[in-house]
DNA sequence: CTGAAAGCGCTTACAG
DNA sequence: CTGAAAGCGCTTACAG
């Protein structure tokens, strides 16, 4: 049982491969008799014909694969949701998602040259050199990035604003001395630093002292140490890098014999399922992953000339979900 | 700046494309002068030559893409880790991972026929028809599946054993009336049912009554309702589908004014970061995702004749991590 | 309105 | 030891 080709469909339909190609690609500029069209379509379906992706790619110099480059750290549930949405949205246009997890400093160029994707979606900042080379080769590059990326076609979630939102919320709860619970994982440092910058800026804006910054491991002992340090420094509000760190801080506060939010208020980022059922329920920053995914998908389709409409930047990208911990 | 082809390398090196192909594919059965070999290698590097994946795929009828089929629900952090490991392990052999998230009942056949992957990795059970068609087309199919899959080349995490482990642990803590906290999400029903079956079997083995089964939403109210029901039924130990459900149960116990583990012991599955810092710290079943990923990668490479050694089934696939909640 | 022919970039029998 | 030629499956000018 070898592969069914367009030649098979042509022979069975009594037409040439050219005609088969015209029919199957629904070329509007070519006029065909309806009878021929129907016959070819019917034969293709009956034979279970699927065009060979490699052959099309070789012919056109462009595959129908979208190369999706991920950072080598896990963003958590967000990345799952994002990929899920992207895969679905792109599949509707016949595009498949090829996931590449970026490891070490191995150059991206080998991969994209080999795969000849029709577009590249970066969920992390590329090296400038890689991006330029891809654009030169005519491959649209769309990406999510950190806030100060200068590319106009890059959708950046303003990480600093997330920190600002956290700080503003703590201030609205009457907290005047803040701390930042940083992650210990260096791989997320780029994100953590920008969120911290947002907290810093907000403190300055509100005329508060600089926030105390402490790295917190995801265990009770580490968090309790941090909490004791902050308490000694008069801290009454803690902005955590994400919900996992925030949950560790909650545990640290308990271990230190203090009360949330009485002694110290805590706010995270992500709204993971565990946040809602924490003790006390964790206030957090919710991110509209769906909207971000939809934006990226549309931006990508637009870059390929496949979108119905240009992408609309989502406006409510994130907001505070107030709960008992603040 | 158009693509660098093997013809370019041939011309620059003063040899034929045949020779270039022989050198670059390091064919052991062909003897070439070392000088020629070096010259070709050097030219290829200087020109930045990358063989066209589509062209190779068209020629050989097989791409270097591994199609990885995921279920349409998110398994959580486990899937991230798994993909991460797989991508890395396969990249060492020049293989790329193409992720496909299964949606609805759309047939898999279109995708694999179009992509012509060199292998398919299923992280969910396939339809028997799809699997047979792929095997007939000569595409190795490797997969993780639920426990009672009959295929010998399928690596199945025995889901029922996870439930059994949970129940055994609760019994070892002196609990004689158990409940099962099931997820509300139908998409994970296949997993949940098998884990529950394991709990049931363990209860029978220990001469305990049938476990009470209640679906628990990931919020306090739903969990509190469930807890009150169980308490009225004399339940003293709860096995939860996963850690997220278990954390909800902890919150429900608190809301119901009861004590963990005094009144009721709780055990989850996954060991997510939040489990360790929960109040009280959550006992859970740890799964060796790394080992599973390594096994799958090796099994896949073996099926392709690329592995150094046949895969060794990991033995410690999971074990209980005892903490304060039991 | 439809077909014969070329060519995308690669590898591999087959000759020299 | 190396080269000329064919062919993987597709699409698209170019002729009829």
Automatic annotation (TrEMBL), chains A, B:
<dbReference type="InterPro" id="IPR046335">
    <property type="entry name" value="LacI/GalR-like_sensor"/>
</dbReference>
<protein>
    <submittedName>
        <fullName>LacI family transcriptional regulator</fullName>
    </submittedName>
</protein>
<keyword id="KW-0804">Transcription</keyword>
<dbReference type="InterPro" id="IPR028082">
    <property type="entry name" value="Peripla_BP_I"/>
</dbReference>
<dbReference type="Pfam" id="PF13377">
    <property type="entry name" value="Peripla_BP_3"/>
</dbReference>
<dbReference type="Pfam" id="PF00356">
    <property type="entry name" value="LacI"/>
</dbReference>
<dbReference type="InterPro" id="IPR010982">
    <property type="entry name" value="Lambda_DNA-bd_dom_sf"/>
</dbReference>
<dbReference type="InterPro" id="IPR000843">
    <property type="entry name" value="HTH_LacI"/>
</dbReference>
<keyword id="KW-0238">DNA-binding</keyword>
<feature type="domain" description="HTH lacI-type">
    <location>
        <begin position="4"/>
        <end position="60"/>
    </location>
</feature>
<keyword id="KW-0805">Transcription regulation</keyword>
């Amino acid at each position: 049982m070898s592969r069914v080709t367009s030649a098979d469909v042509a022979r069975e339909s009594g037409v040439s491969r050219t005609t088969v190609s015209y029919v199957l690609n629904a070329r509007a500029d070519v006029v065909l008799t309806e009878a021929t069209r129907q016959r070819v379509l019917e034969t293709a379906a009956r034979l279970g014909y699927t065009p060979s992706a490699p052959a099309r790619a070789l012919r056109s110099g462009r595959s129908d694969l979208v190369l999706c480059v991920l950072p080598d750290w896990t963003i958590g549930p967000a990345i799952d949701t994002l990929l899920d949405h992207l895969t679905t949205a792109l599949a509707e246009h016949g595009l498949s998602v090829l996931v590449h997890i970026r490891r070490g400093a191995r150059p991206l160029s080998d991969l994209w040259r080999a795969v000849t994707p029709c577009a590249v979606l970066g969920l992390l900042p590329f090296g400038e050199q890689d991006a330029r080379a891809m654009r030169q080769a005519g491959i649209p590059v769309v990406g999510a990035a950190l806030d100060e990326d200068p590319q106009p076609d890059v959708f950046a979630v303003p990480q600093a604003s997330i920190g600002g939102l956290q700080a503003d919320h703590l201030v609205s709860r009457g907290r005047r001395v803040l701390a930042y619970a940083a992650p210990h994982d260096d791989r997320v440092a780029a994100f953590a630093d920008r969120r911290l910058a947002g907290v810093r800026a907000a403190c300055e804006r509100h005329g508060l002292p600089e926030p105390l910054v402490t790295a917190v491991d995801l265990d009770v002992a580490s968090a309790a140490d941090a909490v004791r340090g902050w308490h000694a420094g008069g801290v009454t509000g803690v902005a955590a890098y994400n919900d996992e760190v925030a949950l560790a801080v909650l545990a640290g506060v308990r271990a230190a014999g203090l009360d949330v939010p009485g002694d110290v208020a805590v706010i995270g980022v992500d709204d993971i399922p565990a946040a809602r059922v924490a003790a006390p329920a964790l206030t957090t920053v919710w991110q509209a992953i769906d909207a971000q995914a939809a934006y990226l998908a549309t931006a990508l389709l637009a870059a390929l000339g496949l979108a119905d409409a240009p992408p609309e930047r989502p406006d409510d990208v994130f907001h505070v979900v107030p709960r008992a911990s603040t």
